[in-house]
């Protein structure tokens, strides 16, 4: 019984450790998140893609709009650290004019209002 | 309880530029120039001395000018008049077409604790140092120049600070060139035009700034629109960026390339 108990305990510990990873893999991207920046970028056509099309393809972005009519949308990969980020620029016409991927941006690399 | 305001302060302070009371435009009555935009002449001299002291290390061939930038929508910027004003004199300061200027060295101005005044209402403009090494093409800056801009800007007290108690304490704690050496400082720079990307290049090393270092950090601040009224980047947020000034793995000769929003697509 002792061996069985130990085996069960080991299995429980392994399962407990594995649980968060499984949960992450199944997580649904939230606003401003994508599973893969490269895959998301492949869905975008600069000069053609509209806001509605991008929203339909990638979901809600983190958006910053400017008085000039330009707008920047950002999607970050669902990683805790060194997430790639997809940055889209919408021209005042409402279509994507530029797109880029910034590789491996640590979420707290010198940014965020709490640094100092 | 005493620590609570300090915690709040520390959370708020890193963005020194986000630190001024918003006021309605009609809060200031402009006659001749009451409540003008002004800066301490002594502080600006301190900034100039900092430039001379640190120039050899950071930017040996650079020149220093100061620059005026709009802060409020609708501020007319084509005919800004500047004066060095003491108790017994007022001397015009020439402003170039790009809104840059230099400040003369004047013993009387020091003695009378003069100020540099613009004929615009306070909070309608902001100021920065402008350090430029020769020979760089448009759209390219040098990191050592930017480090020196920060040092001069902090020492000269150019960033618009709050008149609230928190703002004064912020200035006491952080208003010095040392702030620029902090690895995670948030000295706000303004590009020449709205930016889409900023890239550091040193030898074979090449790295884009995270987008959270553009647009005054708006992409990591859900309340950025509300906070905008407190930032001296109010109308130029699309031109702002933070640099890793304190990260010495980037040498002073690092080149900084700007891709602007209105550049042709690459």
Largest sheet descriptor of chain B: 4 strands, antiparallel
| Cross-sheet strand order for the largest sheet of chain B | 1-6-3-4
Helical coverage of chain A, percent range: 25-40%
Spans of chain B of 5+ residues with little confidence (pLDDT < 50)? 1-32, 161-169
Q: Largest sheet of chain A at a glance?
A: 5 strands, mixed
Number of helices of chain B: 6
Radius of gyration of chain A: 20 Å
Count of the domains of chain B: 1
Structural class of chain B: alpha+beta
Annotated CATH architecture of the domain at 29-105 in chain A: 2-Layer Sandwich
Query: How many E strands of chain A?
Result: 5
Q: Determine and state the CATH class of the domain at 29-105 in chain A.
A: Alpha Beta
Verbal overview:
The complex is a heterodimer of chains A (116) and B (266). Chain A is globular and about 35 Å long. Helices cover 34% and strands 27% of the residues of chain A. Chain A is an alpha+beta fold and 116 residues long. Chain A has a domain of 77 residues: Beta-lactamase Inhibitory Protein, Chain:B, domain 1. In chain A, strands 1, 2, 3, 4 and 5 form a 5-stranded mixed beta sheet that branches. Chain B is of the alpha+beta class. Chain B has one domain. Chain B has 6 helices and 13 strands. In chain B, strands 1-6-3-4 form a 4-stranded antiparallel beta sheet. In chain B, strands 8-13-10-11 form a 4-stranded antiparallel beta sheet. In chain B, strands 5-2-7 form a 3-stranded antiparallel beta sheet. In chain B, strand 10 and strand 11 form a beta hairpin. In chain B, helix 2 runs antiparallel to helix 4. The longest helix of chain B is centred in the N-terminal third of the chain and has 18 residues. Chain B starts with a helix and ends in a 6-residue tail after the last strand. At the A-B interface, strand 4 and strand 5 of A face helix 1 of B.
